[in-house]
Amino acid sequence: xxxxxxxxxxxxxxxxxxxxxxxxxxxxxxxxxxxxxxxxxxxxxxxxxxxxxxxxxxxxxxxxxxxxxxxxxxxxxxxxxxxxxxxxxxxxxxxxxxxxxxxxxxxxxxxxxxxxxxxxxxxxxxxxxxxxxxxxxxxxxxxxxxxxxxxxxxxxxxxxxxxxxxxxxxxxxxxxxxxxxxxxxxxxxxxxxxxxxxxxxxxxxxxxxxxxxxxxxxxxxxxxxxxxxxxxxxxxxxxxxxxxxxxxxxxxxxxxxxxxxxxxxxxxxxxxxxxxxxxxxxxxxxxxxxxxxxxxx
Length: 297
Known about the structure:
- The chain is an alpha/beta fold.
- The protein is built from 14 helices and 4 strands.
- Helix 3 (65-86) links the parallel strand 1 (55-59) and strand 2.
- This is Peptidase MA-like domain-containing protein.
- InterPro entries: Peptidase_M4/M1_CTD_sf (IPR027268).
């Protein structure tokens, strides 16, 4: 090879290398920008998309694009399962994710319905696989809450029992919880604690108030779920089900009811019965032992 040809090859190779380096730098810079931290206002504006599932997404902390995709898939599939069981919600859901370093995929969730805005918040550790979120009950529980209006804290046992019972129904329908274990779950959660639930002197609601004072929330959740377990059994004897009543409720009074008495009256009207108001009267006025006698036979 002649000397001039040699330097021409070297020069061309050097230029090609520089072009490759510039291309790689541009790709790296673009990738970095796509994952840059955005202000909450920017995030809220950018995420008001994908409304096919009537969800608006919010990110209180920094999540990668892959983590966002995974978490969205989890909530969208869970909402689909929830609405299959409870009916399509007649409102937009505002879903916010918060970062957690707990050794659990979803250590905490909460809902809010202030000023007519239906919100759900999830505290998540984004390092888990999609299936870990799907098998967890938190999303089913929190999304179930939204199928009725806010119930005041004096009736926490009702609202939490409602979401606890329905979340397990949804998990069974999704195939994440065994149907043959459904009944035994509620019987054991009640009958295994006679010292808590089998009072012959205090009413059921008085027992719930005492548990609330001592922060025994697990007992409140499953104690409250007994109400819906018993009403559902009554409905099934009449060829109905609690989920059927709630599906109809989304189309009728979900947006107009404001208080628990309204919800009970609507459920009775839909089911053409007095099961709900009658059972509520029992839980308020009868002893816990009488209210829960089904579980101690």
